Amino acid sequence: MTATTLTDRYIDAAIRRLPERQRADIAGELRGLIDDQIDDRAAVGEQRDAAERAVLESLGDPARLAAEYRDRPLWLIGPRYYLAWAQVIRLLLWIVPLCTAFAVALGTTLANEPIVEIVWMTITATVSATVHVLFWTTVIFALIERFTPTSEDPVETWTVDTLPATQSSGATGVDTIVNIVLLIALGAAVVWDQVHGMMHLEGHWQPFTHPGLWPTWVIGLLLVLAAEVVVSLLVFRRGGWNMPLAHVATVLNVAVGVGAVWLLAQGRLVNDTLTRLIETEAGPDVARILAILAGAIFIGVAVGSTVDAYAKARRAR
Predict the structure, then answer these.
(1) Which of the listed residues 159, 192, 213 is the one where a domain comes to its end?
(2) Which of 3, 26, 70, 245 has its CA 20 to 30 A from that of 60?
(3) pLDDT tens-digit profile of 215-269?
(4) First vs last Cα of the chain: how many Å apart?
(5) Cα 227 to chain center, whole Å?
């Protein structure tokens, strides 16, 4: 039997990853390339064994060399499709988990599940939907990357026409004034509702919000709104958002969102008179659906405001 050299083993490791019809030609090409480089090194006095080892090490991993011959990338999502993959991922993560959370919360509520079960099933389904979006989108793009020749163009060719509009990283004077006016109006509306009432039911004016919110919860809300006014003024004064201000805005958004959803779940956010009227006229299922919609709105506003603050703070860096 002929002794197996390092060159033989290297060529065998490389061509075993190639289609059968290519192996003989590429094996001959590789052997000629390796022998020529060994001869060049030997001609300047290097030992052939050492020269052979040095040449093979310079060629690198045979698996990588085989991938180059097959025009097969050695990455999961390469530069040709990465931007398209990231764009699709961002779009789907804004749609699929939120729709899943709403559908599961609605279904479990209509099924009269306990509040703990509703929250747990909603969180579980949302996480599962997120994982599926990431996994299957990546698999699809990985298959496209593997089986599309590198000579083909990416999914979408960039042109100047695709440039997005300029995005602001701060707040204009008009934005600041409008935001502060809305915050003051919200605080005034809550106080007026608690003191005077905004619904004329059963022969007298009653508050839309639950009477038990006064004074502790209402004062807490007014303090949060005052803090948001201060944040708006600081953003305007420094000419834009920064990360510390975005962190403060997040805490305030979480305080309002979580507090409102918790009160809603406990039946302590909306006046009991209005709740009973809706249940009597439209049925308990409608009342629960309206409660879910209200909770989704609170969460959506808090999340949207937080994301916007961090996005602007990032652009201001």
Answers:
(1) 159
(2) 3
(3) 899 999 999 999 999 998 898 888 888 899 999 999 999 999 899 888 888 888 8
(4) 69
(5) 28
